[in-house]
């Protein structure tokens, strides 16, 4: 269970003065580092939690027009954090994969909205697809031609 998310560093860069018109590929990359055990004071007393450091990159590619980067850590509570860290260091396991998925999805859900505001201020495209709304019933030709409209 994730108990805390801390962002310790945020950087954004724009490589071009004007945005390029056309299709831009946006990549989201998350790197999770090996966790460490940290003692935290909770309302239930002192508990050992895993602290997992992360880096999250949002890259605007083809052409390369900018990037947004976040660094920080996540506190994750499990009953025996030392055992999980041992599994993490020894390779993949179902438990480690579940924790990595939980942390990555939590990062996406919490950081992407903030990254969208940063992208807007930097005049970069949104970091996630904005829905294209189409009223009426589209013809078969329109559906095949414009598959970016996913709200009907």
How would you sum up this structure, described in words?
The protein is of the alpha+beta class. It has one domain: Bacterial Protein-export protein SecB, CATH 3.10.420. The protein is 29% helix and 37% strand. It is built from three helices and five strands, in the order E-E-E-E-E-H-H-H. Strands 1, 2, 3, 4 and 5 form a five-stranded antiparallel β-sheet that branches. A hairpin with a 2-residue loop joins strand 3 and strand 4 (45-61). The longest helix is centred in the last third of the chain and has 28 residues, at 94-121. It is elongated and about 55 Å long. The protein starts with a strand and ends in a 7-residue tail after the last helix. The mean pLDDT is 85.
Highlighted features:
Bacterial Protein-export protein SecB, elongated, 152 residues, alpha+beta, 37% strand, single chain, 3 helices, 5 strands
